[in-house]
Design a protein that fits this description.
It is a multi-pass membrane protein. Keywords: Cell membrane, Membrane, Symport, Transmembrane, Transmembrane helix, Transport. InterPro entries: Na-dicarboxylate_symporter, Na:dicarbo_symporter_sf. Its main location: membrane. It is a single chain. The protein has 21 helices and no strands. By secondary structure, the protein is mainly α. It has one domain: Orthogonal Bundle (Proton glutamate symport protein). The radius of gyration is 22 Å and the shape is globular.
């Protein structure tokens, strides 16, 4: 291809970047779902195909990126330990702020007051109502790595990647051929990600058309106060994040614009996992070393769920109020502590948000079946909380790079 042939494409991508194309796809999808609901509902396979294509990339990318990141830090175990301690320290601080905010917003707006309790959806059968800590820690260690990868279990893959990376670092020159292979795998995954994400505007249009066609309308209006309260809380969290970004010496709006693609993907797909490959690539381009990104981001996607923590505390307070149960001081402290623990303790569990809600409801004496009241509108709340989860991991990566990754580069 000549330079003259390539100029129009470059010019188009500059004038109409991918994040803007995704917004157009989002608006177009909403319009189709509203005006032609039957046609909109039929577009679900387009979004499903996109999500499956991204998930296809996640495990090989996480394995190669985390292994290489740990390998490169293998000569400095102190630095690795410092990053780990700082990461979990920040995860718990951010979660605590989010949980307290959810409780506070319920006390201000009382979205559950006068709500007529009617189940709007169903909950999974045999939903866990407590945390089995022995099983949680044992599940971190994969007895079969291939099986863990096949089932998209991120935490066991993280554990294996970290131990494998440390082993490669101790192997010295004999481990170099494996490192070269992993570098090739990671580069190939990034290239593949670029190709798949190019179809995002079309996929987003299909997803939003299906959502509006099948889940919009009466339920949304009925629970509008709860949804509105949640989004006020999510905006407050974003403002807190922007203040942190500002004090780190960065422009909050420019930072948000840089990660706009993963944020929009999170909003439309309700999946943090789908955004992971794009998010990692963008943060590395922004100047955060691969060593930091590959360690913090996969870890954060399992343990740093700020938007989800806000939703969980708010939802439990909403349900308690809807049932007419007064929330005394001890009950609020129970919600705060239980959410803080359960939010991390269910990181490797399917339907984690629902499990956290079930654990908290059980701890304060509310029926688990109450979750079904929220199920009908959960998609609209999931969109916002997943977006904040993703931005929260951006902040985590920036903080750890500044305070825990001084002197870290990607040079061997």
């Amino acid at each position: 291809m000549t330079d003259q042939e390539s100029k129009p494409t470059t010019s188009f991508s500059k004038k109409f970047p991918l994040w803007l194309q995704i917004i157009v796809g989002l608006l177009l999808g909403c319009l189709i779902g509203w005006l032609w609901p039957k046609f909109g509902a039929s577009l679900q396979p387009i979004g499903t195909a996109f999500i499956k294509a991204i998930k296809m990339i996640v495990i090989p990318l996480v394995f190669s990126a985390v292994t290489l990141g740990i390998y490169r830090m293998g000569s400095d175990i102190k630095q690795l330990g410092r990053l780990g301690l700082l990461a979990f320290g920040w995860f718990y601080i951010a979660t605590g702020i989010s949980v307290a905010l959810g409780i506070g917003l319920n006390a201000i707006f009382h979205p559950g007051a006068g709500v007529a309790l009617q189940a709007t959806g169903s909950i999974p059968q045999n939903l866990a109502t407590s945390i089995n800590w022995a099983k949680f820690f044992l599940d971190i260690i994969p007895d079969n790595v291939i099986n863990a990868a096949a089932n998209q279990k991120i935490i066991p893959i993280l554990f294996f990647s970290i131990t494998f990376g440390l082993s490669l670092a101790s192997a010295g020159e004999k481990g170099r051929p494996v490192v070269k292979v992993l570098e090739g795998v990671m580069e190939a995954m990034f290239k593949l990600t670029k190709g798949v994400v190019a179809t995002a505007p079309l996929a987003v249009a299909g997803i939003m058309a299906w959502v509006i066609a099948t889940q919009g309308g009466k339920m949304l209006l009925a629970m509008a106060k709860l949804i509105g309260t949640l989004y006020i809380g999510l905006i407050v969290i974003m403002l807190i994040f922007w203040v942190i970004v500002y004090f780190m010496g960065h422009n909050p709006f420019a930072t948000t614009k840089k990660v706009m693609e993963p944020l929009l993907l999170a909003f439309t797909t309700c999946s943090s996992e789908v955004t992971l490959p794009v998010h990692m690539q963008i943060l590395e381009k922004a100047g955060i070393p691969n060593k930091v990104v590959s360690f913090v981001i996969p870890l954060g996607y399992s343990f740093n769920l700020d938007g989800a923590a806000l939703y969980q505390s708010l939802a439990v307070c909403f349900l308690a109020e809807a049932y007419g149960i007064p929330l005394s001081g001890p009950a609020l402290i129970t919600i705060l502590i239980t959410t803080l623990i359960a939010n991390k303790g269910t990181a490797n569990v399917p339907a984690a948000s629902l499990v956290v809600l079930a654990v908290i409801l059980t701890s304060i004496g509310l029926p688990v079946e109450a979750i079904a009241i929220l199920a009908g509108v959960d998609r609209f709340m999931d969109m916002g909380r997943t977006t904040v989860n993703v931005f929260g991991n951006t902040i985590a990566a920036m903080l750890l790079h500044k305070f825990g990754g001084k002197g870290v580069t990607d040079e061997a």
